[in-house]
Amino acid sequence: MCIAQGMTLLDVTIVNTALPSIQRELHMTPGRLEWVISAYALSLAAFIPLGGALGDRYGRKRLFLVGMAVFALGSVACALSTRDVALIAARALQGVGGAVMSALTLSILAETYPPARRAGAIGIWAAIAGLGFGLGPVVGGLLLAVSSWSSVFWVNVPVAAVGIVVAVHAVDESRDTAERHLDVTGVVGLALGLLGITFGLIESSTHPWGSRLVAGPLVAGLALVVGFALWERRTPTPMLPTHLLRARSFVSGCGVYLLAYLALTGVMFYVTLLFQDVEGWSPLRTGISWLSMNIPFLITAQNAGRLSRRFPPAVVVAGGCLVGACSVATLASLSADTPFVVAFVGYVLLGVGWGALVPGTINVAMRDVPEGTSGGASGIVNAARQVGTSVGLAVLGAIGVNAATTTWARRTAGLSGAAGRAQAVAGGQVRAVTGALGPAVHAAATDAFLAGYHLALFTAAACTTAAAVVAAVGLRHLPRVSAPSPPSPAESRLPSPATEPEGGAVPAVD
Prior knowledge:
- Helix content is about 75%, strand content about 0%.
- The chain is mainly α.
- The longest helix is centred in the last third of the chain and has 38 residues, at about 375-410.
């Protein structure tokens, strides 16, 4: 489980570091570049609930191995892509495999370890996953310094091979003994609805809101999501079990997760473009700078168990969201000549904020889940985060692109050839635009990109603040996490949880 989670989080941060290189070599518009992230996140959102349900029904180990194999095949397809459409399709395939793995890692740990040892196991899992998240930018920077962007996908293949071998020998099979029919209609309806909404929002960056490519998918997607909600209330075997929807902690946790990752995805996308495309940083320098965010995240997450025992869940999660909102607002204030110390402060606050809110949110979301349905519940929690990632990037991307292109059109009115460079400006390709139109447009191109950057990230800060409100209201009056009871004589012969990291630390599941 540690290998799988570390690989998926390594993949997320590596790909973010490689975005400018992919953009240049495949000549991708900002909308297509967003799809490199959104196709993966959308597949995760659509298939995580199904992966969890299939694991509960047919065997968690079996489905986990299938997911890891599909993830490796998707990584190979990404590395071999020579066109933007092929890369987007391969990322979607990669997301299908990642969905099954993500849905079952927590479930397998929960089913394998008794409560007295589970916190220690999750602590180790969190440490390895956090290490993968932190090493991603550095590894990506090193690979991009000596090779092409495809290397960031090839690195997944040997890791997946080791993970498959270890899982075959180390993981015991488990499944839900109560037979449940699969809600295929609900899964398909939700997946198509999210696809329509995301497609329409991303296409709004290059087409008018009233066009068929924008209005059509948006209306159809919203209708399918509403239809999904109505269907879930009538079907005898809903994808979202009714007892989970009645659990305030579970629903609130999903809402916080969705809003928090809506904001985080936009931050990582835009900050990468700012430093590499506008500031001219190398991928390695960008990756190393992210350590100022990843190290505080890892330290805070590893101490989440102490926080959960000392403070109520509403305080931990809402406090993390507020610190996160301050960090996003700090990063939103950056411009082309801002000293890095400002970004450093924003990174540190971001690591602390998400290091508190992520494990705190997962703990309260999973606390009321009955035994036997852990796969489905874990899948729904992670699907909420992926919905935030895919739809959120589409929303923030549309806001940023529209603001950038509007500012560019105003600043370059009457300039020949400027209109055709609007998408490049919105994607942060200031140097390329300057080379094509002359140095006189450099300031206008920079200001236009920053107009979109600022509006998108201040919107992300507002979403993180909204997550704090959801946590404060939805998680109030929940009791603190109790300290585990002393082990029995039989358990005392096992490795002591005291020698393992503090429990409760569950980082992002990608």
